[in-house]
């Protein structure tokens, strides 16, 4: 389908205005690049036109190329339309509002001048999709702002605000005028006679030392860890280096080759999948988009422990004022200090200025009583994980909170409906399950109880997004989706220890796979005690529950992780480096002896498959139970909650790279060897038999709760 009509051309005051009008974000779809070229040809042939303006209709300039078109044959790519802008005999002014990302910024860079509204954001996020910018972006940006700044922007994929872009030399002007189109036409008239037309391709805006080989070598060294799994960052450096050393044309060829080589790599495909999975997760099947939900403009957090303080910080970081309530003045003061110290550490690291810290602290109000939070749009409860305490808190919230306020719980596993039963307004109650540390981890698992209103879910998701989180919905069940699907992985890790694997070996397998840290090292940070109570509760409720003796004994010995100086590893005072510890080996040996467990060696592949297949099987059961809307939501949770390597797409996407039948066969074997806990899910068996894809599965009944 061609989107030619999405480019409009009209002369105004001697300026040819080319408007991209492709809602919602002006992504460059099929035919649009051709239409830009046609419009330029018309204007260049029209003697009454002296210059051009390229502008987006609506809030954005061009948010990027249409990602659905990557990996497919295109009639022309952005490099061709960018070249046409660049070559225009009459100057072109890019007028940027909202986002100019990827292909959007590449088109703007090919224009001869760039002016922007103060809120504009520019960036080249292609590397985050496993690609390099393919429309001349690496060549023009480098020539315009120098290789150091260009590599920073291209390798991070970050959004650069208008002020910074002006300072760097990406923009020529930031205008306060409310009518950007009029300002751009005015600007275009003022530069219409300038000759030669200034082109980024002709510039060389860098100091000699910034182009030295050492600059590129140190950049390569800084991405070496990432580059183990991802080819795109090193290819991007190669392109920038080509911009410094070679002619514009030759540099473009290097860029085109890198783009072509990367476009269909498994990593790029997985990253594109992850991008769309996150978009999809925002949707509730069969329900109109929740964009119209009222924003949460004031929030409260009850309980300022590990999670509550992180959540309060996340609100303050998002410029949402938040009130914090505790069980006693002492606990409130401890919460305040915890929040202050977290910010102070950021200031010390240099990632936050003292001014910003002061502004953010000022958004957090520490209050003594429930009546102080009554007016807030939303309240998140983050008190102890005990139903009686949750009931007490929700009873009080019900009594004071204004009608329509969101009543949310950060519980990791408790039944939302039971929590909601403490209120007379269960429709307003939902889970918003954040992950530790809540101000850093991206996932917010929005939990839907039987009686949660759809509007509550939509508003909670909107709140989560405003906090910079990626949200996905889970039905209420023990552990919801994220922790429930991960629990079997944790179980198999512990059981493999009993059978002869070591924490270090398992951690290494997982970091080689692409996790930033091994699961045992992570557990030492979050605390071994966090899951201890949950295991006791499950063992009481289910006589067949397989007890995990090793972590239980470590906790009972006081080894709770880094906070106690030892857990799965031993830590030197003031140092976070994990050292293997004989004590753990002794505990493991004692457990193995006591239960007569045979010791053996494990291959890396067996370890990887055993932990991840256990979780894939559980994920299928979650879908079977109708607790997830779609398999891709589970992937979104693993990517954003647990650090699953993004270039592997997610748990279910990765499973498909092995194939459902291979996964099913292995799980069936393990069911014969290890018993009941490995019985394959019926859904997995079906997908294996039909040779389908696990990542495309929808939850039973499609409803999810
Ligand atoms: P925590 O023990 O660090 O903090 C709980 C806080 O709640 C304490 O400061 C306590 O003083 C306060 N509190 C207790 N009863 C209260 C009451 N009646 N009124 C007001 N405040 C009260 O616990 P946490 O780790 O922050 O966990 C809080 C919740 O978040 C739990 O439901 C937990 O399951 C969940 N959660 C924890 C993690 C994690 O990794 N720690 C992750 C996700 C979710």
From TrEMBL:
<comment type="pathway">
    <text>Lipid metabolism; fatty acid beta-oxidation.</text>
</comment>
<keyword id="KW-0520">NAD</keyword>
<dbReference type="Pfam" id="PF02737">
    <property type="entry name" value="3HCDH_N"/>
</dbReference>
<protein>
    <submittedName>
        <fullName>Fatty-acid oxidation protein subunit alpha</fullName>
    </submittedName>
</protein>
<comment type="similarity">
    <text>In the N-terminal section; belongs to the enoyl-CoA hydratase/isomerase family.</text>
</comment>
<dbReference type="InterPro" id="IPR018376">
    <property type="entry name" value="Enoyl-CoA_hyd/isom_CS"/>
</dbReference>
<keyword id="KW-0443">Lipid metabolism</keyword>
<dbReference type="InterPro" id="IPR029045">
    <property type="entry name" value="ClpP/crotonase-like_dom_sf"/>
</dbReference>
<dbReference type="GO" id="GO:0004300">
    <property type="term" value="F:enoyl-CoA hydratase activity"/>
</dbReference>
<dbReference type="InterPro" id="IPR036291">
    <property type="entry name" value="NAD(P)-bd_dom_sf"/>
</dbReference>
<keyword id="KW-0442">Lipid degradation</keyword>
<dbReference type="GO" id="GO:0006635">
    <property type="term" value="P:fatty acid beta-oxidation"/>
</dbReference>
<keyword id="KW-0576">Peroxisome</keyword>
<keyword id="KW-0560">Oxidoreductase</keyword>
<dbReference type="InterPro" id="IPR006176">
    <property type="entry name" value="3-OHacyl-CoA_DH_NAD-bd"/>
</dbReference>
<feature type="domain" description="3-hydroxyacyl-CoA dehydrogenase C-terminal">
    <location>
        <begin position="607"/>
        <end position="695"/>
    </location>
</feature>
<dbReference type="GO" id="GO:0003857">
    <property type="term" value="F:(3S)-3-hydroxyacyl-CoA dehydrogenase (NAD+) activity"/>
</dbReference>
<comment type="similarity">
    <text>Belongs to the enoyl-CoA hydratase/isomerase family.</text>
</comment>
<keyword id="KW-0276">Fatty acid metabolism</keyword>
<dbReference type="Pfam" id="PF00378">
    <property type="entry name" value="ECH_1"/>
</dbReference>
<feature type="domain" description="3-hydroxyacyl-CoA dehydrogenase C-terminal">
    <location>
        <begin position="479"/>
        <end position="571"/>
    </location>
</feature>
<dbReference type="GO" id="GO:0070403">
    <property type="term" value="F:NAD+ binding"/>
</dbReference>
<feature type="domain" description="3-hydroxyacyl-CoA dehydrogenase NAD binding">
    <location>
        <begin position="299"/>
        <end position="471"/>
    </location>
</feature>
<dbReference type="Pfam" id="PF00725">
    <property type="entry name" value="3HCDH"/>
</dbReference>
<keyword id="KW-0511">Multifunctional enzyme</keyword>
<dbReference type="InterPro" id="IPR001753">
    <property type="entry name" value="Enoyl-CoA_hydra/iso"/>
</dbReference>
<dbReference type="InterPro" id="IPR006108">
    <property type="entry name" value="3HC_DH_C"/>
</dbReference>
<dbReference type="GO" id="GO:0016853">
    <property type="term" value="F:isomerase activity"/>
</dbReference>
<dbReference type="InterPro" id="IPR008927">
    <property type="entry name" value="6-PGluconate_DH-like_C_sf"/>
</dbReference>
<keyword id="KW-0456">Lyase</keyword>
<dbReference type="InterPro" id="IPR006180">
    <property type="entry name" value="3-OHacyl-CoA_DH_CS"/>
</dbReference>
<keyword id="KW-0413">Isomerase</keyword>
């Amino acid at each position: 389908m061609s989107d030619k009509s999405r480019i409009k051309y009209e002369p105004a005051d001697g300026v040819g205005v080319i408007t991209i009008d492709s809602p919602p974000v002006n992504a460059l779809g099929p035919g649009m690049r051709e239409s830009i070229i046609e419009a330029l040809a018309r204007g260049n042939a029209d003697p009454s036109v002296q210059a051009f303006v390229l502008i987006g209709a609506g809030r954005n300039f061009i948010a990027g190329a249409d990602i659905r078109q990557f990996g497919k044959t295109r009639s022309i790519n952005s490099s061709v339309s960018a070249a046409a802008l660049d070559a225009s005999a009459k100057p072109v002014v890019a007028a940027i509002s909202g986002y100019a990302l990827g292909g959007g910024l590449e088109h703007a860079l090919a224009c001869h001048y760039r002016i922007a509204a103060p809120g504009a954001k520019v960036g080249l996020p292609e590397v985050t999709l496993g690609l390099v910018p393919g429309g001349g972006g690496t060549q023009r940006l480098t020539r315009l702002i120098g290789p150091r700044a260009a590599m920073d922007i291209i390798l991070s994929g970050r959004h650069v605000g208008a002020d910074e872009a002006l300072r760097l030399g990406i923009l020529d002007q930031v205008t306060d005028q409310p009518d950007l189109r009029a300002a751009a036409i005015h600007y275009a008239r003022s530069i219409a006679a300038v000759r030669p037309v200034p082109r980024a391709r002709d510039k060389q805006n860098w100091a000699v030392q910034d182009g030295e080989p050492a600059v590129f070598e140190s950049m390569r060294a800084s991405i070496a860890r990432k580059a183990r799994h991802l080819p795109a960052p090193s290819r991007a450096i190669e392109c920038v280096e080509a911009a410094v050393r070679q002619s514009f044309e030759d540099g473009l060829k290097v860029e085109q080759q890198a783009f072509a080589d990367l476009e269909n790599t498994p990593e790029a495909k997985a990253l594109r999948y992850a991008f769309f999975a996150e978009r999809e997760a925002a949707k509730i099947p069969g329900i109109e988009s929740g964009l119209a939900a009222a924003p949460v403009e004031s929030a409260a957090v009850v309980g300022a422990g590990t999670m509550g303080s992180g959540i309060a910080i996340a609100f303050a970081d998002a410029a949402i004022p938040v009130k914090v309530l505790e069980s006693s003045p002492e606990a409130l003061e401890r919460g305040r200090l915890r929040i202050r110290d977290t910010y102070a550490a950021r200031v010390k690291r240099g990632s936050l200025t003292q001014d910003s810290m002061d502004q953010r602290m000022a958004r957090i109000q520490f209050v003594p009583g429930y009546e102080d939070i009554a007016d807030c749009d939303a309240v998140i409860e983050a008190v102890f994980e005990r139903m009686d305490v949750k009931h007490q808190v929700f009873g009080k919230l019900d009594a004071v909170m204004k009608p329509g306020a969101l009543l949310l719980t950060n519980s990791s596993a408790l039944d939302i409906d039971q929590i909601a039963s403490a209120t007379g307004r269960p429709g307003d109650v939902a889970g918003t399950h954040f992950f530790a540390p809540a101000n850093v981890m991206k996932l917010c698992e929005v939990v839907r109880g039987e009686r949660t209103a759809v509007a509550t879910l939509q508003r909670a998701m909107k709140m989560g997004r405003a906090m910079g989180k990626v949200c996905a919905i889970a039905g209420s069940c023990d552990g919801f989706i994220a922790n429930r699907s991960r629990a079997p992985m944790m179980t198999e890790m512990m059981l493999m220890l009993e059978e002869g694997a070591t924490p270090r070996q398992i951690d290494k397998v997982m970091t080689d796979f692409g996790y930033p840290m091994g699961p045992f090292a992570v557990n030492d940070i979050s605390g071994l005690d966090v899951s201890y109570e949950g295991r006791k509760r499950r063992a009481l409720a289910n006589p067949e529950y397989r007890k995990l003796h090793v972590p239980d004994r470590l906790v009972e010995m006081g080894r709770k992780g880094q906070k106690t100086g030892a857990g799965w590893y031993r830590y030197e005072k003031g140092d976070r480096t994990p050292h293997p510890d004989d004590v753990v080996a002794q505990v493991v040996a004692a457990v193995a002896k006591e239960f007569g467990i045979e010791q053996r060696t494990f291959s890396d592949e067996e370890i990887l498959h055993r932990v991840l297949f256990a979780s894939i099987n559980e994920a299928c059961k979650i879908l079977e139970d109708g607790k997830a809307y779609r398999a891709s939501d589970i992937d979104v949770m693993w990517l954003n909650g647990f650090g699953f390597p993004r270039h592997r797409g997610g748990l279910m996407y990765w499973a498909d790279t092995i194939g459902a039948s291979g996964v099913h066969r292995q799980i069936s074997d393990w069911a014969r060897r290890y018993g009941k806990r490995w019985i394959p899910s019926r859904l997995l068996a079906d997908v294996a038999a039909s040779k389908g894809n696990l990542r495309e599965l929808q939850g039973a009944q499609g409803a999810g709760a």
